[in-house]
Amino acid sequence: MISALNMKSATKKHQKRSRPSENAIVEATCEYLLQRGFKELRFEVPMGEKYLDIMARHQHEYCAIEAKVDSPTRAFKQATRYQHVAQRTYVALFGTASATGTHLADSTGIGLILVSPISPGQLTARIAVEARLSPYFEPSLASFIWQTEVD
User: Fold this and answer.
1) Which domains are assigned to the chain?
2) 3 state DSSP class of 14
3) What is the pLDDT of residues 39-55, one digit of tens each?
4) What CA–CA distances, in Å, run from 76 to 43, 67, 83, 120?
5) pLDDT digit string (tens) for 136-150?
């Protein structure tokens, strides 16, 4: 006989196995950015001791994205650092919009990109909450970070 606790544990293990890697989330998000007209993308851009997952540039607009498989609270905390180097900052998460993710997006001005499967092994990204323009954006810092060499 399977208890409700064992069933819940088995379900969580299955869900974790069916989640994509962070790299897969980054790839799906990059495809989405390219479709939106961003022509220049950088990955793992150094910012002090941390790394920005994706930095995109289109003409004079900078966009920063923190990708996570889960942990929306941690993702939004990290993304707040990027508001100085991008006019718009997003968190890309796997799955559906959670109350936590939507609340954090609304309260911080950081946008929410959701990445979900469309077929086995294939992901798609869409904006669930549009990012607001960052009041902290510093163009000279964005330009400096953009030009920083990536190892």
Assistant:
1) 20-147 (3.40.1350.10)
2) helix
3) 999 999 998 888 999 99
4) 18, 10, 11, 28
5) 999 999 999 998 876
